[in-house]
Amino acid sequence: MSLLRQHAPADHADLPGPATEQMLAAAEERMGVSLHGNLRTWLLQNNLDLPEEDVDDDVMCCGFDGFPDEGSFLLGIRAMERLYANHPLSGGSEWREEWIPFLSDRDGWTGKFIDARDGRIGRWFVGAPTVTGEYASLAHYFDSVAEMLTRIGAGDCPVCSVAEGRLVWS
Questions:
Q1: Half-sphere exposure at residue 124, Cβ-oriented, CA atoms within 13 angstroms
Q2: Would the pLDDT of 59 be above 70?
Q3: What is the CA radius of gyration of the chain?
Q4: Sign (positive/negative) of CA torsion 59, 134, 84, 1?
Q5: In whole angstroms, what is the distance from residue 151 CA to residue 129 CA?
Q6: Res. 50: pLDDT tops 80
Q7: What is the 3-state secondary structure (H, E, C) of the chain?
C-alpha cells in the first residue's frame, strides 16, 4: 500500500480504512469458516469495501476499480462474504468451502482465493480448471503486486501508467 501511495496517491487516498475485529468475527460466523491469519492481518489494515451507497446490487462484486490490475480488484470483507456465499463454482467439485475469494472481477467469474487451511493462493476462472498453490502465501502474491507497482512507477509497464495520481490502464 505504501507503493500505491507513492506511485498513485489519488487512488490511495480513495481507499477506506481498516476492518475491525468485530466485522471479521461476524463475517467468519456467517461464512462458517475462519479467515487465514494473513488475510485477517490484511483486512485489519485494508478493508477495501466500497461505501454502502456506492455498492451496485446488479454486479456480484464491487470494489475499487483498477487495483491491483485492470478489470479486477481486491475485495473488502463484505464483498468477500457475498462472493463466498454466492460463488459461481460453489456446490460442485471445482470449489471448496475453505477457499475465501479476495480478488475478483465484477461478475465473480475469475479471481484469486486464499485457502483458509494453509494460506496458499489459488485462482479460479469459470469454465477453466481451478489452480491451487499459484502463490505460496498472500505475502508472495503481494510481492508480485509490489513488483508491478514499482514497474508502473518507473514507467516500465506497457499496459499501465499514472496520470494525475491515478493508475490508468490501456
A1: 25
A2: no
A3: 16
A4: negative
A5: 30
A6: no
A7: CHHHHHHCHHHHHHCCCCCCHHHHHHHHHHHCCCCCHHHHHHHHHCCCCCCHHHCCCCCCCCCCCCCEECCEEECCHHHHHHHHHCCCCCCCCCCCCCEEEEEECCCCCEEEEEECCCCCEEEEECCCCCEEEEECCHHHHHHHHHHHHHHHHCCCCCCEEEECCEEEEC
